[in-house]
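Quick illustration, no need to memorize.
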Amino acid sequence: MASGFLKIAGGTVYDPANGVHGEIRDLWVADGKIAAAPSDPAAQPVSLLDASGLVVMPGGIDMHCHIAGPKANIARKMRPEEKRAAAKVRRTTATHSGTLGSVPSTFATGYKYAGLGYTTAFDAAVPPLGARHAHEEFADTPCIDKGFYVLMGNNHYVMRALKDREPERLQGFMGWLLGATKAYGVKAVNPGGVEVWKQRQAGNVASLDDPVAPYDVTPRQILRGLAEAADALRLPHALHIHCNNLGLPGNWTTTLQTMRSLEGCRGHITHVQFHSYGGEGDESTFRSQVAPLAEYVNEHENITVDVGQVLFGKTTSMTGDGPLGYYLHKIYGTKWFSGDVELEAGCGIVPIEYRDKSLVHAIQWAIGLEWFLSVRDPWRVVLTTDHPNGGSFLAYPQIIRLLMDRTFRTDVLKTLPAKVRDRTGLADMDREYTLSEICIITRAGPARILGLKQKGHLGPGADADITIYTPHENPQAMFELPRYVIQGGRLVVENGEIRQPENGRTLHVAPPYDRGVEADIAHWFEEAYSIRFRNFAVDESYLE
């Protein structure tokens, strides 16, 4: 078997999941997997990649982004001015053409993720009726493995099961829906609030205990019910939660209550930066409340977070939180799209801009960094921008530099409004991330949080997703241009050029469930849906 091996020789390996922190080692690859070294010392590989003097890590994993499905496609169509101004992605003998901007086209998304050293990405919010669309776009997103979380936090069947106090029926529905949509996990966006928005103009919930008509259940009940169902089904990833009151001053109390409501259950709080605001609704009181939230996370191992870091510049807000989209539209006065998805979900899309001269935006920037520097265990905090909401995933190298270089971080902070230093704790934070910690928050950590045992590490049996960097004193320069990127054992990127842009796999789950629930689900479909039950499920052919 040694004759089929690729050997990556002499690299400085960072593999925190296996306790390796910058050791010079060889890696062997066979059949798309990391392999044990051949027992015969005279065995020679078919291919040899000399990694001497280079840094070797597992491929990056973006566990929360928006790259596929109806919402992403509408956002692309809404921003022609961005497409015209952005650099062109031109066709080559190996690649398709594409467009950039804050929401790149499908092919460009795959190429740019791979070019950054990322080999896996998860779309964070797909309505069940949009699942087939998402899979069709995944088929046109090369170079990376991908998956998505299906929206359930405002689903009428979920709320009906909770009203009737039938947790087994909710578990059955969740298991069926995951299998039918070929999703990887479950997402709750502003639970209950989106349904209220769909019922009346400017509607929303204000607290976890506001009843949601017509089922008279509360966001707290929705959160708890979904989290318990996900745990009962033993899903690899916890309930993925976009808390209520995102973006509103004073929302940190809602976030803390959400965390407390999950006692005894797993929960992942996503883009937590947007949920960590103090104040009373005006700029004069807006401030960070990271400290009490991070302390809760530090003391409760059932909670994990990704940050949703804000970067300065223009981008597009696209969210499954319809009332948030309207709120941003009123602030910016720009064009706005709002869409309702039958009895399932909704969305809002708005062009936005984060300005470094804005005190509020500068505080948001600082809050994200506070989160990275406040969570003591790097295995429980993940680097994201909520692409494109906080900024493009292409800005990840800049965030890495901000975390590894305190002097650079301080220099940037000095360019921002002076009150940022009074209203956040960032100026007093001395911590600098190590390369091993960066490897954790971009690779090993998200793999563990997602339950992806075959990813995020370089041990035998792992997927051969490998990124090789040229060391540089400037971490941003190092992470912007990997020397080599290997995905599934194939050389995908070499010195910034796409070599083998083959499609990756779609990651999904199909947990066992009580199939007796299907008759009730089918009856509900025939009464309430625009399509027939038998036509709803995504066929296996979409995964080929």
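The mean pLDDT is 96.
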